[in-house]
Amino acid sequence: MHFWKSLSRVLAPTLLLPLLGAAPPAAPPAPKPAPAMKAATAARPSNQYSVEQFMGSTDVMAPVFTSDGKQLLFSSNASGIFNVHSVPVGGGKPTALTRSKTDSIRVVGAFPRDNRLLFERDKGGDEQTHVFVRTPDGKEKDLTPMKKGVAHFLGFSQDDSAFYITTNERDPGAMDVYRHDAKTYARTLLAQNDKGFGVAAVAPDESWVALEEAITTSDGNVWRYDVATKTLKNLTPHTGTASYRVGDIHPVTGEPYLLTDDGSEFTRVVRPAKEAGKWEDVEKADWDIVGTSFSHSGAFRDSIINVDAGFELRLHDLKTGTQVPLTQFPAGMISQSVFSRDEKQLAVLLETDRASANLYVQDLATKKTTRVTDTMSRELDSEDLVDAQVVRFKSFDGMEIPNLLFKPHQATAQNKAPAIVYVHGGPGGETTRGYNNFVQYLVNHGYVVLGINNRGSSGYGKAFFKADDQKHGKDPLRDCVEARKYLASLPYVDGSRVAILGGSYGGYMVLAALAFHPDAFDVGVDVFGVSNWLRTLKSMPPEWGAFRQAMMQEIGDPEKQEAMLKEISPLFHADKIKKPLFVVQGANDPRVLQAESDDMVAAVKKNGVPVEYLLLPDEGHGFKKKKNEAEVDRRTLEFLDRYLKPATATAPKP
Question: How do residues 343-358 score in pLDDT, each as one tens digit?
Fold first, then answer.
């Protein structure tokens, strides 16, 4: 996945997390052992690659088995934009099933008894998503032909007779649940969501719908909407701050399996206890369990664990009550998984720091494992890329801050390299391990990159996640300033040449660093970043419903805290910025409006500061087109080289 993938693909979205070949071999090759972090004095000759060579890698996502289990559907940007593809589970050449050239397409479901499929698409990244059906003859039909609004696929019914779609066509601030007949597509309203809660799942017997209430970004409840009586019941009343959300609903018993950190630092899996109103633990870890789901009949349950900026998959055989070893998969990070309908196969998305994500299919009986995609650019040698190293430093108040450090092969104490503090999206995102096209591109061109997980990041416990509440532009920003000091302490880093770079909420941190700590960094790169919190909070997409209030609880209420939000909004302090700035913006961005970047660029130019501005007319909040990603990557490197690699600095030392 590309640079902006730093947020986890399995984490619930927050305000500013960006959205979004050749025939593979029949079996996975033996993985090369990952090299240890090179010592500072042991430079290794490294080939340098162009952005076009890096763009030769393909992103794949959203695996779905066909009804017969013989094909795997997935979305791929092999054509330059995401389209739906299919590939035999035994390996072979993928086949493109959709051929959009303008709008990104994501497969979301395969019909259980035939070869129809469902996909979602918006227009130019505007996030006004519609749900489409594609029939085997290639015909496509919009099942949600709204003039204005958002629709999402929720899932198929347990008996295969229907599927569910949520839309906000009735009320822009509420996603209602509709039941669609699987044959005729005729629909009926199943749940009217007057509270604007998040929709999580429908019970197997369709008697109730699970809804999620976000009180704050770290405190929430799960509610039961009774379809017959149209009444709501809070399933998770609690005291203090605790997050409750739906993992899955058992397909036979109908029991909700929830994810919660109530009474603990990390998220675990719970289910209803025998005592009414109580919950019992099902699964714990020393880290957050970020997702859990059942196979079709409940024979298996899998969970994904967020382990120190990486992801691990656990597979549970519920018939035997044992955990199934996943030894037949190559070493790497698994962040997505899906069972076939007959529960005989498991597909996963697996990647390493030096190899792009690929889809693998395992036969659960024989354990035979097949790699069914081949996504890595053939022009890249993985030995020229680098592994991330987990490092920590103490911030200004003693709080320990975790990071991922990427060190170029050519950086040594004799040949010190410029460095970049990279800030993830959010608030509440996380820089995670796995293949990061853009970071590898920067490192390959001689930059040390420190992916900081400042306070407020996911994955490090409840207290750490809450530590930035109502402190944005202050304490978490100071963590980034301290990150520069940490980089300067490394023997192979030139502490006089350090940039700050980030996308989405990370873009806000870039602007805030340049405005509130004008001497801390030498240049900044802001992509889709907030400059004016008053405007951004007021313009949050209406379909987010009650979650809008949760974001205001964390960041600030524009009606009640106007002075505070102006204090932390870089636009109102742009006169203090004196370091070069590169700004990237999507014209169709519904989360951070184009005016955020337009106004900031105009304000900084008044200072006589070098400012470069790249407006992408066909993107929203993130990259969905390879040509745009390549342009941003190339322009970013050119900008950094211009200010951090003057001729005297780039000349190799004897």
Answer: 999 999 999 999 999 9
